[in-house]
Structures are given as C-alpha cells and as structure tokens.
Specification:
It is a single chain. The protein is of the alpha/beta class and 406 residues long. The protein has 10 helices and 20 strands.
C-alpha cells in the first residue's frame, strides 16, 4: 500500500478521490488540498471520511512530509509544471494528470528536471493503462497484423455552455502568461489522440513520432480556444493519423478509432471494446469492462511498488505534445463558426445544465470525415477553412509563428 496526497478535491480530482476510496488495500489517501471558497463536494466528502483537508498545497506539503509517498497532481493544465516541480523539490514522487504540460519546451524542461532528480513520473492518460489497449499494443508490436498503414479517429462529446464557466481557464489558450491550449486535442479528447499515436507506433511503450501536422481548429462556443478539430498527422514511418472531434455535436458519439494494418483492421470503440477483422475474413472481438480510473490507479501503485517502468511517462508523451503544438501552429487562432451555422437549444442534463450549443449537421460532418479519412474542409463543411501543413522536424518551442502572443 502507498500513502498518497492529492492536490485538489474538486472536478476530476474528486472523481479520482472516490476511486481511491474503492482501493483500500492499494492506496491510503492521507491528505488533499481544497480551496474553501469553492466549497467543492470533494472537500466535504474527504472531511466526512476523516481525511485531512488543507487550504493550499504549501500547507499540505509541510504537514505530509514523512507521511505521504506520492503526490497526485490533477490541477489545471497551466499549473502542471509548477506544481510538479514544487512537489518534487519537497522530496515527493508524483503522479501527473494528462496532458503533462501545454508546450514542448515545458515538456522537455520538465523531463530534464525529473531525470536530474532521479524521479520517475507517470502521466495519467487513463485509457493507455487499460488491459485492452495494452493487448492491442502488444499485438501490433509483435507484428501480428503487419505494418500499421493508417489510423482514423472520431468522437463527439457534447459540452453544455456551463462547461466553459466552471473555471477561469476553461476554453482558454493561455492565462496570466501561461499556455493552456484547452480543447478537444489537449483536454477531454486528448485520450483519443494519445490512443491513436500509441497504436500507430510499432515500438513497445511508445507513441508514433510525428513529422507534420495539418490542423483545422474551430469553436462554436464563445471561447478563445477550440471545441471542434480536424487533424491529419504524418509520422516518421509514413503512417497517416486522422483525428476528427467536436464538443458541439448534437449527439454523444463515443470515440471510434480504426487502425488499418497490412493484414487486419482494428475497430476500437468507446475505449472498451475492439473488433479485429483479419485479411482472411476471420473476426475476433475483445472487450474490457474494467473501470478505467481504478485500473490506472492500480497499475500506478503496482509499478511504483515494484520499481518497474511505467507504461506512460513524460518521455512517452513527447509526440502527443508535439502534435498539439503543431496543430495550433498549423491553424493559428481557432476559427469562430458563424452564428448561422449554430443552434443553441435549451436542454437539461443530469448536472442541471440547460443551454447546449450545437454546430448544424456536425454529426454527419464527423462521420463523413471519419469514413473517408478527410479533414472537415475536404468533405465540404460550409464553415470549414483549409489550413497549411506544419513541419515538426526539429521543433522545440511553441509558438514559432506570429499568430500567438501571451
């Protein structure tokens, strides 16, 4: 069993806290931080469980020295770097929430920083730890299906308008001089992008190395960053990766990833099931119904205790961050979709949200782009704008173009 402290108790941190409490033989949660002004459900939950709650991270660090083994850091994207170094400097090991950081220069600097201090830092891309993902990766690395030729991904995860008022950083490109790049590719559907890069590589434990990205980034909501995206990535092995996603879809369309190999096609759906169709016509179905956060936490603890390599590290994630940065370099500031292409409807959801912004016909646009391996502009979306290809070879700092200013 490891003793773990958590930075934060609201939002996703609260979801993790609840899962940790389901693993009493694996993890003991010894402290959390929670801003009392936010009155989060996680704060009261921890207090009811007798878990010490501190108002800020400095307070917690001071009080858990010699008690906690690891600090989990599920904080806003732009705070990952500073909180990671703060906790490491205080002598703790850390588990870092996805995405690791927003820019490639921060990733490289944090990687060097961690290495100099002899630390191992796993990144919590929860679906990459799943049994089904690791099984698919193993088969691809073994060459069971031949060379990977192309990977296509599509998803529609509607977000109500209040999603962007829940915090000061939601939907932002940057805040207070710190990059965030919030959106489909670097936040909720970062999981699908990371899965695609992971499955596109035939190297064990690695994501595919991108050499170029062409990206169309849009927003239907009244935000700075993107909520709808269309990417074409080319890897150093010539694999084409398509990513088409929106948070303004009419219906929920769970992530669907198709991996086209020389000898098989893998249809990986909803992060939990896959159908493998061999060139012989033979079909195999595999599924993984495990709760992904519990599975990830269990794997993190097991690797921490036995000292083995983590499946997903800062180094593993470098291609992911390259693609995210390259996407914004390719497109520039995300394009605002005109009001004539939007529908704002009143609709309730379990959380009490009521206003939902939808891009007209976006569900069909997503399907067409996915099925044909195209970008939104290439399937005739009326609001779409073509972008240029951005070369990622030797790329070391975001941004290089004049598009972006902090």
């Amino acid at each position: 069993m490891i003793k773990l402290a958590m930075v934060g108790a609201g939002g996703y941190a609260y979801e993790l806290i609840k899962r940790i409490c389901d693993l009493p033989d694996k993890i003991e949660l010894v402290a959390v931080t929670s801003n009392p002004k936010r009155k989060s459900s996680g704060r009261s939950f921890c207090q009811s469980k007798g878990i010490p709650v501190y108002d800020d991270t400095d307070q917690m660090i001071k009080n858990v020295k010699g008690i906690a083994d690891v600090v989990f850091i599920p904080v806003p994207i732009h705070k990952h770097f500073s909180f990671a170094t703060k906790c490491i400097d205080a002598g703790f090991d850390i588990f870092l929430e996805k995405p690791p950081v927003a820019t490639i220069q921060d990733l490289d600097e944090l990687t060097k920083y961690v290495s100099k201090r002899g630390k191992r830092v796993p990144v919590a891309f929860q679906y990459l730890y799943s049994t089904i993902m690791q099984e698919l990766k193993k088969r691809i690395v073994e060459g069971r299906y031949g060379q990977v030729k192309r990977v296509r991904g599509m998803a529609g995860w509607p977000r109500f308008d209040t999603y962007y008022t829940r915090s000061e950083w939601a939907g932002k490109l940057h805040i207070n001089g710190e990059w965030i790049l919030d959106g489909t590719i670097n936040n909720p559907l970062a999981h699908m992008l990371s899965d695609e890069l992971y499955l596109a590589s035939m190297k064990a434990g690695a994501m595919a190395e991108p050499v170029s990205v062409q990206a169309e980034l849009y927003h239907g909501h009244d935000i700075e960053s993107e909520d709808t995206s269309s990417l074409r990535v080319i890897t150093d092995k010539g694999v084409e990766i398509l990513f088409n996603a929106s948070l303004c879809s009419d219906t929920r369309m769970d992530p669907s990833v198709i991996v086209e190999c020389e000898k098989a096609r893998i249809d990986y759906v909803g992060f939990c099931k896959a159908t493998i169709t061999l060139e012989t016509g033979e079909v195999e179905h595999i599924a993984d119904d495990n709760e992904k956060r519990i599975n990830m936490l269990t794997k993190l603890v097991d690797h921490y205790e036995n000292g083995s390599s983590y499946p997903v590290t800062l180094e593993t994630c470098r291609p992911f961050t390259l693609v995210v940065n390259g996407a914004f370099e390719s497109c520039g500031y995300p394009h605002s979709i005109g009001k004539e292409y939007l529908v704002c409807r009143e609709q309730s959801d379990p959380k009490g949200d009521t206003i939902k912004t939808v891009i007209k016909d976006i569900d069909n646009v997503l399907r067409a782009a996915h099925e044909n391996g195209k970008l939104f502009s290439e399937v005739g979306a009326a609001w779409a704008k073509k972008s240029g290809k951005f070369d990622l070879r030797g790329y070391k700092k975001f941004p290089t173009t004049a598009h972006f200013k902090v």
